[in-house]
Amino acid sequence: MLHRLPTRPVLLLALLVLPAVAVAHGISTTITHGPAVIVTVTYDGGPPLSDEVCEIFPPGDDAVFQTGRTDHLGRVIFAPDRPGTWLVKVVTADGHGAEVEVEVDADLLVGNTGEVDSRGTASKLIIGLIVLSGVFGVLGYLKQRTA
Length: 147
Known about the structure:
Layout: H1 7-23, E1 27-32, E2 37-43, E3 53-57, E4 66-69, E5 75-78, E6 84-91, E7 97-104, E8 114-116, H2 121-146
Antiparallel strand pairs: 1-2, 1-8, 2-5, 3-4, 3-6, 6-7
């Protein structure tokens, strides 16, 4: 005899677990200054994004200034030739990645150092929608259960 799984509890469990899985692939970045700019890219609280594709864009220009790969420590290193806001993009083979803005002053020194939030607007929007879906799913389940 076949037994059916209760679909509502399974659906509720999926709604609660999926946002955690989506957020689990966060990426952290750190900017260090010196004679060159060093941007370190790691998974949140984990290993570096080593040997991943990176592109660097100069201020006010869509043309790529430098392309390459991160080193084994997840670092992107470049020497800016002008002040302004530089964009560093790192993308993994499975589609994860980070876009980091690096402020370079008139002396060609980095203005923003330390850990930065590299999550794009799209990622924040998707995470927000997942959380809202989970909340409304739970509320709908509870309302239907009490009715």
